[in-house]
TrEMBL record, chain B:
InterPro entries: MetI-like, MetI-like_sf. Belongs to the binding-protein-dependent transport system permease family. Its main location: membrane. Gene3D superfamilies: MetI-like (1.10.3720.10). This is ABC transporter permease. Coiled coil: none annotated. The chain crosses the membrane at residues 32-58, 70-89, 95-113, 125-147, 153-175, 206-229, 249-270.
Amino acid sequence: MSVVSNLKAPAGHVARPVFQLRGVSKSFARRNVQALDKVDLTLEQGQFASVIGASGCGKSTLLKIMAGLTPPSSGSVMLSGKPVLGPRRDIGMMFQQATLFPWRTTLENIVLPIEIQDGKKAALAVHDRAHALLDLVGLRGFDKVYPSELSGGMAQRAAMCRMLIAEPDVLLLDEPFSALDEISRDFMNMELQRICLERNATAFLVTHSIPEAVILSDVVYVMSPRPGRFVEAVQIDLPRPRTLDMLSDPLFGRYTKQIRGRLDKGAFI
Amino acid sequence: MSGIQPTVAGEGLPPDTIWDENLSWFDALPRAVSMFGLLVVFLGLWQLVTGLGLVSPIILPSPWRTAQDLVFVGQSLLSGNYMLAAFWITAQEVIFGFVLAVGIGVALGILVGETTFGERAVMPYIVAIDTMPKLAFAPLFVAWMGFGIASKVALAAFISIFPVVVGTAAGLHAADPNARMLFKSIGASRWQTLIKLKIPTGLPQFFTGVKIASISVVAGAIAGEFLGGGRGFGELIRVAASQLDTPRVFSLIIYLSLLGLMTFGTVVWIQKRFVFWHRDSNLQDSHK
Ligand SMILES: Nc1ncnc2c1ncn2[C@@H]1O[C@H](COP(=O)(O)OP(=O)(O)OP(=O)(O)O)[C@@H](O)[C@H]1O
Ligand SMILES: [Mg+2]
């Protein structure tokens, strides 16, 4: 753990950029909405970044562009040195809804990405890995259970396993735990941090919760609406690994205050 | 913190507070009893109306007379005479018509539900034809295919195909945006999305359409026989009615409904095996 946190020390190291967005804009001609305006963003290997902003300011749109689910109107998106021109298998995604399929057991849901990309045989071959992931998120023994028998939090944990099954380098998370109660949410956030540190994964999180953004992130981008653009990048210099105790740290309070102030200004422009 | 005490039962507390939910007595009856009771009331009223001579037996025969005929027709069916042959003809019309309706209906439904061309260009025609009085096509089918079973099969299929098309197309549209986005994000092809997402998601709607079809297909076959001179059960009904043999008409209709129940039951049975994850409120499990 300490090795990892040293690696991620904020100052004085040269990290490899993973994601590079330059001047990314998106407008929806149909409704004459400028959702994103010249967004620049660089994510480094192992970095955890969050974006926070008012509803409808373009966070999900940004995430979809990064994931190659929708093209930008202008600007460039590079992932590991290659332009993003469609869905990429080195990206793992998670959404607000778990979206497990009721006709598949939990295990079958988790190996779905492998089944789609490499076929049934390959999916069978990663069953061991899927079991290990289930253990990791505390769902041991739930592999043969159908999603209707999982609670909301358990379903979201299974969705997390599905995101991780293809061992992506980059995690794109669109409010993954916002449908959960606060207790499971805190727990899941700590799990997420642990997984990211363990794999040195790069993560980009969309959230509405300031404390969540601060406790998880190395940097929090504050976004303003219409058109969506970053108005501030707040570096969070809390040590890794973060713990829930830090929620009462005075430094933590200062960060949340700073972001809240920035949001209040930005939201009413 | 030490001031908090767990509640101990028994001290100063009343005993178990169990109370009855007030269900009126006829809501509380077991299902079998209430169904049987309703049947007795119905038969009693029927007997009353006919026994008092309020209506002529040609218009409404007594329940007893009808029951006798029911037994007679049942015996003829079992003995394998012309009635069984007629029943078998109608059954064939129903089965072939149903298979045809499902087969063509699914193909059209996929065309409409999965392609923009189908949705834009084909669907309006399907809706237009669906709004026509479809029975009026019966003479056409007879002219095209003759008085044999083919024209009845065609009419039965024609009448029951539309719910299959609509159910299939609606089912293919049922996958929610999140699920579609998930499939896109893991790089699924259009074909994979159809097979592994849209079809399973749409099965409940599909089966709803097929269930409606499984009922209307019998009506289609009988209408075909009425209008196109078949040799099935519809013809027996027509002949019995023309001879004012009302009890026979009743019992033939009751045996015919068995055919509908059979197709419907088969569909429900298949649905239960394939769509095990979907709780459907059909007759079988609505009150269990
Ligand atoms: N497919 C689309 N067609 C037209 N407009 C769209 C489309 N998708 C998003 N928009 C518009 O783009 C803007 C940004 O939407 P987006 O979903 O990115 O917001 P968001 O920041 O994720 O909001 P929330 O926090 O509520 O999830 C909104 O004004 C929305 O109406
Ligand atoms: Mg969003």
